[in-house]
Amino acid sequence: MMTQKRSLIWQWFVDDKIEPGNVKAAMLVAYPHPTASEWQLLIANILLYLGVLLLSAGVIFFMAFNWDALSHLNKFAIVEVIFALFIGGFYLVNHAQKKHHSQSSLPSTHNQDSQHNQHIQQTYGWSLPNAMLLGASIMLGALLALVGQTYQTGADPWQLFAIWAVVILPFAYIAGFDLLWLLVVVLLNVSLGLYLQSFASVFSFLLEDIQQIALFGLANLAIHLLFTLAKRWQWRGQLHFHCPMVEATSLLASLSAFTWLIVWIIFDFSYDSSEHVIYYALLYLAILTSVFVWYRYRSPALYPLTLALTSISTAIVSLLSRELLDSHDPIGGFFLIAMVVIGLTSGCLYWLKQLQKEFAQTAMLNSEDAAHE
């Protein structure tokens, strides 16, 4: 929102609606400099989560380095004690924050709203309780790996990551936190990849490599749609799915997979021998068209449109490269491809810049309408 305000202020300056001497003051109003307390909070959060990650990684590396020197009881005791400390820390800190929130609530409506917003930020954001849940989630994975290595309960590695993702789902839902949900998404993707790799010979008659790429793209697109729709719906668990990092990462993984899919089709498939090429191409066009229409008209956003334009540009350059590099003049083909890349990049950047101005003006008009209401 602040970036949109700054873009609109700059557009006002270009249109001579703001004097040059007032631009800096207007920019500071739209995007004020962080205060000392905000810098301290940022540094504290960075050190907190870095400490939790380093502590969890240290425990795992300590177990691996001293595997032969430790007995089974000592291995389980170390991991379970660290896990219990994380869970206990989460309970104590969360209970203390809720008690403080209930005591500090004042009768004033404005104060109640500010206290409620602060409580929401402490509950679902980069907070100390969520850091404890992140550490507990990592320790759960270490405990599952320890059980598997000690008792040889599973021969397939995909089971570890799949069970790990399922077990920490309650933690991710309770926290409603980007890093925990992102950990779940990464574990699901890793388990899916290992599953397909483990049973490649079994499913070879059903799933070829290109179909596995399409499956990855559809899986991540489903994750993106889940978080996008869950955030838009008005329901009780809405705040638990407000994770912009997960939405952006899953959409990036999905469109990257579909871009890989179309490039594979262009370079490695023969249009005469493969009858399924048209279906993969139609799938790619349907997904890209849906993403473009949704984020251009229904929910305007620059990041998804940038990914879609990058994917389309990659497909165009790949198709042109296949046709030109097979000709008898490769030097001329390289020159033409370079010109096409420059043209596509310049055109996309210019169009995205115009969209940014349009989105900023629309956001300002909506905020003004909401303020009048």
Write structural notes for this entry.
The protein is mostly helical and 373 residues long. The chain has helices at residues 2-14, 23-30, 36-65, 72-104, 109-124, 128-151, 157-167, 169-175, 178-198, 209-232, 244-268, 277-298, 302-325, 330-372. Helix 7 (157-167) packs antiparallel against helix 9 and helix 8 packs antiparallel against helix 9. The two termini are 19 Å apart. Residues 106-120 have low confidence and may be disordered.
Number of helices: 14
Main beta-sheet annotation: none
- Total E-strand runs: 0
Calculate Rg over CA atoms: 26 Å
Helix content: over 70%
Query: How are helices and strands ordered from N to C?
Result: HHHHHHHHHHHHHH
User: What percentage of amino acids are in beta strands?
Assistant: under 5%
- Shape, please? globular
Structural class based on helices, strands and sheet pairing: mainly alpha
The average pLDDT score comes to 81
Distance between the termini: 19 Å
The poorly predicted ranges are 106-120
Keywords for this entry:
373 residues; mainly alpha; 81% helix; globular
Lay out the secondary structure.
Blueprint: H1 2-14, H2 23-30, H3 36-65, H4 72-104, H5 109-124, H6 128-151, H7 157-167, H8 169-175, H9 178-198, H10 209-232, H11 244-268, H12 277-298, H13 302-325, H14 330-372
Helix pairs in contact: 1-2, 1-14, 3-6, 4-5, 4-6, 6-7, 7-9, 8-9, 9-10, 9-11, 10-11, 11-12, 11-13, 12-13, 13-14
